[in-house]
Design a protein that fits this description.
Mean pLDDT of chain B: 89
CATH architecture of chain B: Orthogonal Bundle
Distance between the termini of chain B: 6 Å
CATH topology of chain B: MetI-like fold
Oligomer: heterodimer
Structural class of chain B: mainly alpha
Largest interface: A-B, 66 and 67 residues
Helix content of chain A: 25-40%
Structural class of chain A: alpha+beta
Shape of chain B: globular
Number of strands of chain A: 22
Strand content of chain A: 15-25%
Radius of gyration of chain B: 24 Å
Low-confidence stretches of chain B: none
Largest sheet of chain A: 8 strands, mixed
Number of domains of chain B: 1
Mean pLDDT of chain A: 93
């Protein structure tokens, strides 16, 4: 009896393995998400949602390979009234996924919602410069800004996908659960056909798409929360593209079916020094940190070389605005000590830095827990600062706790964090006095003036000059200690081609060019 | 088993649920940090305030508790922060997936652990007994995370005979063979530790029972080997085993967080991890109450099964 049962079991298993082997439909691109997305670009809170929204909801413009805005739903635009009025001529051949025509009213509806905090919008800050938006006619939209705002066009192509007025008018966007979770309607090259909660979102080609006909047969976004499982699925062919961390590289480098690509990420990883703390108020102290921390060792050791060495807060990805001629500050602990001595900090008999009153240079560095790269970078910073006589305690915290209980109320000494910004040099909200995201409480009148002029100047050549000057100012009066500009590490199966040389979020807005051989 | 006894048990269960609800509410709300929706350092003060108002977090904590308790008493567990849909609805979409995985794991556990535990309990000290004991020790000790990834690398990456994760191949939802292929690895991983545990209980319980006089008598009377094992020995050894199985069930229903996360299985376990990481208060409360209810219900069920298995318990009841 048990033997017979065993035989039946084995037979069933064998049949399962053979019958159940799915013939993968060719031409379906499979990408991972870590959780169920919100398929609504105006309220999407996380990167996963942003990625799928790029495919479903085009914006008025999109970034090209130089990260500059190119036409998308808008055919062309004019900027008048000293940069206060933007008039967009829209395409007239666009249909929503449900067949209804796309018009200027949809654009007006989207930006009315995006600028209203009560709607649940996550784009309020991005578009706070909008004073008014009107539909001049079905194919013309006019934005009037309250102040000149140079990043406006870039932001339109960053996260601002256009929503259908006919489906969402009259209620807060967060309440449109069915639309946001299972039946989104956009104008993009792919449309959602099936959502399995917690498992996958399947998209098929939108035959009415106004742009180049997509070369893929469809897309599947699979929910795979664990990065190790994502890497395993990439290797087994169940995923086609996974963005990885440097510590995942070892398991991928020898796989003949996988290509590793680097893309420029518009990010800078940094340490805030809370300038409300008298320790960090003097510019000399913050300048000394640049010499005290061996950032090359962090880039080589922790990031396996996949990052650029920093000079200020503008990352190298902003090619047009990044000043390559500025000499980077190299690791030089002796110079760091000399600068600290000028600021009144000298080593005592034990080598500990103390001030004239004999008080030690003592502070706590916080970092979010769970990301190996950031934790190791924080450890390296702590060790380097200890070497020059600072008493640094490292405190890893859960990210939500770090933000809510430490960063926002300003109850911290130093904090390792990162900023991901749109592909524009505007950093006013991060480093201008009293701004929402200036968590380091940096305040410098010259920097304020440059940052204000930078966001108000439309002329590219003039903007370059302004931001180059800001970058130079940061070398001697750094608002923060920038550690590195990371690269986005893309592990892609070799049979996927047509991917532009961009980070994944911008590349996905060109998904009609992707091809699987 | 009288009606009054049953009613008393149900009343106790309600008290347990109320206590669990109150304690969980305050522990979760008073913990550091907050909902992940608010954890974006780039949010402006205006955006942050709008989110807090929408989630009902701008009231003082006692007011929030009163609102939550009133809602819950009326059977409304509120809307999930992360999903924007009713908590009950979200739990119900994930529960069947967990039941499929948990049910398969339980069947696998019983099918492997009972015969092996019985066999080694009847032959203590033999090579077979030593091997099964050692293997079970290994399975108890091996971290689920490591074991899961090992199986994925072997079966999905190296040999390519089973999928690395998920519940279905996209486009093949509803196909039973496809579901079974996806089920094999997570079910094996999930049942590995349970098999080891139940096997050890079965072994020790069998050893104790098989030395009793009535077994010797039955053997002397010529009772067949199979009948002796399953009707005489296993039935008497079943009470501690049943208790152990009863302890496994709520864990399985509550979801196997690590297994479901590694294999991308869309069940309750992964949902509870998402809820905890996202500090989705309504969802955390909903899942906690649901699992508490399952624990209470299973305990009651096990208590009801004891007298059926053992007439001596029936007489006491």
């Amino acid at each position: 009896m048990p033997k017979r049962l065993f035989s039946v079991g084995l037979l069933t298993l064998g049949l399962t393995l053979t019958l159940g082997t799915a013939q993968a439909q060719s031409g379906i691109l499979k990408l991972p998400l870590i959780n169920d997305p919100i398929m609504n670009p105006v309220i999407a809170p996380d990167l996963g949602s942003v990625l799928i929204n790029k495919v479903i909801f085009p914006g008025l413009v999109r970034p090209n390979e130089d990260l500059l805005p190119e036409p998308d739903l808008a055919k062309s635009w004019t900027i008048t009234n000293a940069g206060l009025v933007y008039t967009f001529i829209l395409r007239n051949d666009v249909k929503w996924h449900d067949g209804k025509p796309f018009t200027a009213d949809d654009v007006v509806f989207t930006f009315k919602a995006a600028t209203d905090p009560k709607s649940g919008s996550r784009l309020v800050s991005d578009f706070s410069s909008i004073k008014d938006v009107v539909a001049v006619n079905p194919t013309t939209v006019r934005f009037t800004l309250s102040r000149p705002f140079a990043p406006f066009l870039t932001l339109l192509g960053h996260n601002a996908g256009i929503l259908p007025k006919h489906l969402l008018e009259g209620k807060p966007l967060n309440d449109a659960t069915a639309f946001n979770r299972s039946t989104p309607i956009g104008t993009g090259p792919f449309k959602v056909t099936r959502v399995v909660p917690g498992a996958s979102i399947t998209l098929e080609v939108n035959k009415d798409y106004y742009g180049t006909k997509p070369k893929l047969a469809g897309m599947v976004f699979k929910v795979v929360p664990d990065i190790n499982a994502q890497v395993a699925q990439l290797r087994s062919g169940e995923l086609d593209w996974v963005n990885v961390e440097p510590n995942n590289l070892a398991s991928l480098q020898n796989d003949p079916n996988i290509t590793l690509k680097q893309a420029n990420a518009v990010q800078h990883f940094l340490v805030f020094f809370n300038q409300k703390n008298p320790l960090f108020a003097p510019a000399k102290v913050r300048e000394s940190m640049q010499y005290a921390v061996n950032r090359k060792a962090i880039i080589d050791g922790v990031l396996k070389g996949y990052a650029d060495y920093p000079t200020g807060t503008l990352p190298t990805a902003l090619k047009k605005y990044y000043d390559k001629s500025i000499k980077p500050v190299q690791y030089d602990p002796a110079r760091a000590k000399a600068l600290l001595a000028q600021a009144g900090w000298k080593p005592d008999a034990k080598g500990q830095l103390v001030n004239a009153k004999g008080e030690p240079f003592k502070f706590t560095l916080i970092v979010d827990r769970g990301n190996p790269s950031r934790e190791q970078a924080a450890l390296a910073v702590q060790q380097d600062l200890k070497k020059i006589g600072m008493d640094v305690t490292l405190q890893p915290l859960e990210f939500a706790t770090l933000v809510r209980d430490y960063l926002l109320p300003g109850k911290y000494d130093a904090n390792l964090i990162w900023w991901t910004t749109p592909p524009d040099p505007d950093q006013y909200s991060f480093y201008a006095t009293g701004q929402d995201n200036n968590n380091a409480f940096f305040s410098n009148p010259k920097a304020d003036e440059l940052l204000k002029r930078g966001r108000e100047t439309a002329d590219v050549a003039q903007r370059q000059k302004i931001y180059n000057e800001f970058q130079r100012l940061e070398m001697t009066n750094p608002p923060v200690l920038v550690l590195y500009y990371p690269k986005e590490l893309q592990a892609i199966r070799k049979n996927l081609s047509g991917v532009p040389d961009l980070g994944i979020r911008d590349a996905l807005r060109h998904s009609e060019d992707f091809q699987l051989k | 088993m009288t009606l009054s006894y049953l009613l008393k048990r149900v009343f106790h269960a309600l008290i347990v649920l109320v206590m669990v609800g109150i304690i969980t509410f305050f522990v979760v709300r008073l913990a550091p940090g907050g909902p992940s929706l608010l954890a974006d350092p780039k949010l402006s003060a205006v955006e942050r305030q709008a989110i807090e108002e929408r989630l009902g977090l701008s009231d003082p904590l006692p007011v929030q508790f009163a609102k939550w308790a009133g809602q819950t008493a009326r059977g409304n567990l509120g809307n999930s922060f992360l999903y924007g849909a009713p908590t009950v609805q979200i739990i119900m979409t994930r529960l069947p997936n967990t039941l499929i995985l948990a049910g398969t794991s339980l069947l696998l556990t019983l099918a492997v652990a009972l015969p092996l535990g019985l066999a080694s309990g009847l032959r203590p000290g033999t090579a077979f007994d030593r091997i099964t004991s050692t293997v079970s020790l290994v399975f108890v000790a091996v971290p689920v995370f490591w074991f899961g990834l090992l199986l994925i690398i072997l079966f999905a990456v190296t040999w390519r005979i089973l999928p690395a994760g998920g519940m279905n191949t996209a486009g093949l939802e509803g196909s039973l063979p496809d579901l079974l292929r996806h089920l094999i690895l997570p079910a094996v991983v999930l049942s590995a530790a349970s098999i080891a545990e139940i096997m050890r209980y079965t072994r020790s319980s069998t050893r104790t029972v098989s030395t009793l006089d009535y077994v010797r008598t039955a053997r002397a009377k010529g009772v067949g080997d199979l009948a002796l094992r399953y009707r005489h020995i296993l039935r008497n050894a079943a009470i501690p085993i049943l208790t152990a199985v009863g302890l496994q069930l709520p864990r399985l229903i509550g979801g196997a967080a690590i297994t479901e996360t590694i294999f991308g299985w869309p069940g309750m376990g992964r949902l509870s991890v998402e809820a905890a990481l996202g500090r989705d208060y309504p969802l955390i409360m909903g899942i906690t109450l649901f699992v508490a209810l399952a624990v209470v219900a299973f305990n009651l069920l096990i208590d009801l099964l004891y007298p059926w298995l053992d007439p001596r318990v029936r007489a006491e009841a």
